[in-house]
Design brief:
The protein is of the alpha+beta class. The protein has helices spanning 2-19, 22-25, and strands spanning 27-35, 41-49, 72-74, 90-94, 97-101, 107-111. It has 2 helices and 6 strands, in the order H-H-E-E-E-E-E-E. A hairpin with a 5-residue loop joins strand 1 (27-35) and strand 2 (41-49).
Length: 115
């Protein structure tokens, strides 16, 4: 059984780079085979999905700083001709867009192509 598992992993490693396409390049699957001291084999499989990082924001969505491209808080909102944020709200930059965010993380307003 061990030889079968190791042969399957070796075949996956050998064919994996050849069969990768642009969609699969963002998704990576890793398989780890470990043998414990008592002689048992443990197979761990992990799938990692990568995103391009840019997202189109909409009013009412949750704003996540990790998903925002070139995230930055805007203190000089007047210079970009943006409306004054309400109490506790702030303007944030996400790529070329300006996003007005409430303290709880929901989006109030989105201005596209500001930068």
């Amino acid at each position: 059984m061990k030889k079968l598992i190791l042969a399957a992993i070796a075949a996956t490693v050998a064919v994996g780079p050849i069969a990768a396409t642009s969609v699969e390049a963002q998704r990576r699957e890793t398989t780890v085979v470990r043998e414990r001291p008592n002689g048992r084999t443990v197979v761990t499989r992990r799938t990692v999905t990568r995103d391009n990082g840019y997202r189109t924001w909409r009013t009412g969505d949750r704003f996540d700083q990790r998903r925002a491209q070139s995230y930055r808080r805007l203190n000089d909102w007047r210079g970009y001709r943006l409306a004054a944020p309400g109490r506790g709200q702030y303007w944030a930059r996400s790529g070329r867009d300006a996003v007005l965010v409430r303290p709880n993380g929901t989006i109030v307003s989105v201005r596209t192509r500001v930068f």
